[in-house]
Amino acid sequence: MEKALEQQKMWFWIALISSILAVVGIPMIPIFASAKIWWLMTVGIVFVAHGFYGLALYWMAYSNARRRVRLIYAITEENILTLDKLAAQISYGQRETDLMIKKLITDSYISGYYYENGTLIKREEEKKTRLVRAECPACGAPVDAGEGECVCEYCGTHFKVEVKLK
Ligand SMILES: [Zn+2]
Fold first, then answer.
1. Which DSSP string do the residues of the chain spell out, in sequence order?
2. Deepest of 51, 57, 129, 148, by most Cβ within 10 A of its Cβ?
3. What is the mean pLDDT of residues 110-121?
4. Residue range 42-71: average pLDDT?
């Protein structure tokens, strides 16, 4: 979330400052042309040209960064984990949202999730579902265990659990 928020902030300032410079640049051109201060007139031209080419891009980058923050918030804070609901939440197309979710994972904006068939799954939940009820081979006590080595909490016996996937 931190990284996404920082990028949102960064693009906002770049877009805002470029917008201001473009607006300031417009009157600079005729004012300094008539005053024959050529270098300041040139600065005005650079501000305006920079704004002309850059502004749409910067504001677009800002709006994307903002959308990404909202998407991360929806996933991690509001626990919305399906593609259709996430797309609705951020008012964005499903295909585009799908790409965004994949990018969140590959660029490590969110961790502890994997994404499959339009659904995000938390990794710890995946582990929980793999827990099985096993029986201690020494004392017969029921033990909730994951796959592999485990210890009976009643008698301390170490034993191995094999999970048969259905
Ligand atoms: Zn036992």
1. -HHHHHHHHHHHHHHHHHHHHHHHHHHHHHHHHHTT-HHHHHHHHHHHHHHHHHHHHHHHHHHHHHHHHHHHHHHHTS---BHHHHHHHTT--HHHHHHHHHHHHHTTSS-SEEEETTEEEEHHHHHHHH-EEEE-TTT--EEEE-SEEEE-TTT--EEEE-PPP-
2. 51
3. 91
4. 94
